[in-house]
Design a protein that fits this description.
The complex is a heterodimer of chains A (217) and B (763).
Chain A: H1 2-19, E1 26-31, E2 36-41, E3 45-46, H2 49-59, H3 65-71, E4 72-79, H4 86-90, E5 99-106, H5 109-115, H6 119-123, H7 130-134, E6 140-149, E7 152-163, E8 166-176, E9 182-191, H8 192-197, H9 199-208, E10 210-211
Chain B: H1 31-55, H2 61-70, H3 72-96, H4 98-115, H5 120-147, H6 151-156, H7 158-190, E1 195-198, H8 214-228, H9 231-234, E2 243-247, H10 254-264, E3 269-272, H11 284-303, E4 306-310, H12 314-317, E5 323-324, H13 351-360, E6 365-366, H14 367-370, H15 378-387, H16 395-403, E7 416-422, E8 440-443, H17 449-460, H18 469-477, H19 484-500, H20 508-520, H21 530-550, E9 554-560, E10 570-575, H22 584-604, H23 613-630, H24 642-646, E11 657-658, E12 661-662, H25 666-688, H26 690-703, E13 705-707, H27 708-716, H28 731-749
Parallel strand pairs in B: 2-7, 2-8, 3-4, 4-7
Antiparallel strand pairs in B: 1-3, 5-6, 9-10, 9-13, 11-12
The chains are: A alpha+beta (217), B alpha/beta (763).
Chain lengths: 217, 763
Amino acid sequence: MRKVATFAVGVIAAVLVLSGCSVPTVNHVGEGSAGMFFDLPRGWQSISPDVLKKAQTSWGSTDGGQAYLDALKWQGVWSGADGLTPQQAFSNAAPEHPVVYASVRSLYDVEVQNVAGDVLTALQDVVLPVSAAASGDGLDVVSNQSYVQNGLDAVKQQVSWATNGVSQTIDVRLVLSTKKKLLFTFWIRCSDVCRDQNSTAIANALDTLTIKEPSVG
Amino acid sequence: MAEKSNLVDGLPDVGSRVRDEDRTTRKPLAPFDRLKLILLWLGLWVLQIWAALVDNPLQTLNDAAYYVTSAGAGRFLILLTFVEALRQFHFVFAEWNAKYYGWWQRLFARNEKFANRFSPWTRFRVSRIFKWVVGVYAIAAVVGSFVDLSPFETIIRSPQLAVQALPFALQIVFYMFLAIIQFVAIFYFLSRGGIEVYMPDDVKTRFSDVWGQDAVLERVKENILFLENPDAIESRGGHVPGGILLWGPPGTGKTLMAEAVAGETGRPYVFVDPGAFVNMFFGIGVLKVKGLFRKLRKLALRYGGVIVFFDEADTLGSRGGQVSQSRAFTPLSESYTLSNHSCNGRAYASEMGNAILADEDRKVVMGGMGGGRSFDGTLQALLTELSGLKKPRGFLNRIVRRTLGMRPKQPPKYRILVMMATNMPDSLDPALLRPGRIDRIYRVGYPSKEGRIETYRNYLNKVTHNLTTEQIESLATISPYSTGATIKDTVNEALVIAIREGRDTVEYADVIKAKSLKQHGLPDGGAYVDRERHSVALHEACHAVTMYRLQHNSVIDVATIERRGDVGGFVSPIPLEDRFVQWKSEVDTDVVTFIASLAGEQLFYDGDHTQGVGGDMAAATSLVTRGMLSHAMGPTLRAFNASTVANSGLLLGGVPLVQGLSMEGEIAEAIEERLQELYSKAVAVLKKNRAEVLAVTHALETYRTISGEDVAAVIEGRPGPLVDGSVYATKQMKKALEDYHTAAVAAHKVRDGRPPALPELPA
């Protein structure tokens, strides 16, 4: 009888342990093979990698597009909106919900040469033409500076612009690998209104951004 | 009430173990057995959480546990854990509650009864289907997890997935193929070779080229006839004999006969090299046998029949390690004439006597040394191919027809004649020699006299010679154990002698010299000192004269005093006819011939004699002992076998014992008595033939080596082929020889005595 009781206690304890697993509030995005991790609110949806790649392939017929796809090692798009399409994710229009893009790619040859010098100068125009914007080209560069992310050279930017009268802001993080062969790209953008509504989530995503280099790179 | 008795005093009686069918509750499980599966599933679940934590540095324990438990394998593991827990609860109740346990037992019994309604074959098929379904689902689930599809979708799209994976799969197959093909290639090349196929007319030898083996040749021809025309026997209800074994001493024409078959037959002829099946790796021999018979079947179908010849069949057909006592194959002219160190102890005996003496140091032929080792399955493969189950052949015939519910077609009749040749038939496996595999066994022995005459004539006809028919017949007479190969070699050696002497024509003397050279070897060329030369010549002359006068069934082949190794000289006889038993009188004659050396030396040297008689006396003693112990030629009727006699010690000069009985007295005295009696006889013969002994002595001292015919000529005082014996018949010569001998004996008795010069022969 004692043995039965011991057994029952053990099982109950296991059940309690299991039942103590409460539902997480955030989604820990990232893969060890990619080396890039960040938290997004639970419930934000992602675009299927196949759909994304298919769309990009159809865009990649222009010069540079195919080269970008060839250099890609990992990427993903997330959004607070349901059913976001790749076209919507990368369009110029201000999104109503935050759109997050993260990628890991190899540097192009010319970039490898450029990053040997000043990192900020080399990377500031990767996502948006910030240097051109500095001379007043429609983009309002709120911040553009280099920093260190997880011991790696990085650049962070905040740029605003308006499309059809609707203003939006993008926060960009660009991180170089130790050997300056890989570029980790992370940006999150949405309209100013959406930004106010999702400031915590956006701040949390940016704060939790972690780069843990994979063995290759 | 008395207690039950125990096995060990003082211990309580634990009673007998409860049978399963007598239990009212389930047998309790050990705690670990209850928990082991739960621990396993939980352990795997924890492993999954750990992997999730390691993979993402932002992951918390709570979140990792949630995500692992809520999806995929983690969920399945938790489910398994609950199922196992439920199961254990069930077991616990069954162990505690008899009613509950009984109910389950009845439930299982009903299920068993239901299942037993179906036949075991049906249940097997149902379970097989079930296993297939589960297996396919499991594989689909695993593959689906890699390609992000559900198991059902994976099954549906499996052809597409297989095609997509084909390049990778083909790569794997290719690498495996590379690894396997190396072994295949090695074994393929190792299993090649050792087999030659001759088509009709490739071989020039014909039956007419085989001499001296007419009887066997006729039987072999008969076999070929049946192979060429199988209807001749099959239409009468018989079958074509499938195998022939030719066995006999080396050089008797077995391989030549096979060559003749190859030349005569209109079928392909496959020659198998003896060493073909001796291989480095196990299994190669089996492959070779199978490859050989595959080729034979193809040839048989294509050409209507095929002949395969295995030379030195003991290489393949022996299981190895067997001992063969091939006494019958020991020719007289081989080592036994040179086996005694002090004198040629056995050459004076007749052939039968030699055979008896040969039993003492019987030649043991290890079948395993000359024969092949067949513990690697080669012999077994051969036996199966020769006469195993006639299995259907071909993938389409065997597999496809059976799959379609049809019986495979039986193979056609392959006409394969197997010929084997060996000189060690004792070492062949008995399974090989049974009818059905080897239907006919023919002994190819030494040629008869007529065969030897024909062989000599045919080989001499290939060179220029001046031998007469009588001389050829004489040659055949004095070479009783010569094979075709020996005769061919002798004629060739005679030609070499003729060429060396500047002649193109081979003469009778050349052949005699060649024969002696081949049989006895080249003399050392060393010379004796004069007085020893005389004593050695006298010793041999005593043997020769005694042999000539007393032995009626053999003639002298050669007498010599030239040293050959450790042998000082010898007189070798040749039997006039092939016989198998010897009379007591003939044994006595042999003994007298042996003793003649002792008798002669003592007679001619005034009681003195040399150590050279040792071998002769040992041989004489052996013959007498053997006759008395084994052949009832003594005072008793008792007979003992050869090994007992050999171990008796008498022959070795030790303490005579036969099966634990002391032989001193009875048999030992009889042996000595017989030897003394025969000694006296030898003395009598030598006394009567004193002049002849001295004549032969002189001839040996002069010519060193003389043929048997010349010995006869000297004894009879007539001209011989090379020595003129008539000079010894004159009174002057006889006196000269007597004087010479007397002087030699006188010189023998003084220190540094030298005998006079050898009397010269008149011109």
